Amino acid sequence: MIVQAAPTARERRFKKIAFSGMWVFVLGCGVAGHLAMRALSQRLEWSNQIFFAAMAGFCVVLRDRHRHVEYVMFRRITAIREKARPSPKPLTPPVNR
């Protein structure tokens, strides 16, 4: 629905690719990161407290990366809309007679 609300074909195409990529990033990094942290905790024999702290840190880093990707997407979409918008006519000063 958000993709179809885009005013130009270029923006719709970008949103489709960007939203698909974001889901791949979120799910891929989330699942792979959780599995990697679990493997590290078993390999390094972490206690539950250390594992919890490491997972919390991982979630914070993952959230920050996700926010960065969202910010970049927002800036790109804004730039696409600015290019598609017609430039305003220059204002001419009134003529005094």
Largest sheet: none
Shape: elongated
Terminal CA distance: 54 Å
How helix-rich are the residues, as a percent range? over 70%
Helix count equals: 2
Strand content: under 5%
How many strand segments? 0
Domains, number: 1
Poorly predicted ranges: none
Radius of gyration: 23 Å
* SSE string, helices as H and strands as E: HH
Overall pLDDT? 83
Structural class: mainly alpha
Please describe what this structure looks like.
By secondary structure, the protein is mainly α. It has one domain. It is 74% helix and 0% strand. It has helices spanning 9-43, 48-84. Helix 1 (9-43) runs antiparallel to helix 2 (48-84).
In short:
With 97 residues, the chain is an all-alpha fold. It has helices at residues 9-43, 48-84. 74% of the residues lie in helices and 0% in strands.
What topology emerges from the helices and strands here?
Blueprint: H1 9-43, H2 48-84
Helix pairs in contact: 1-2
List keywords for this structure.
97 residues
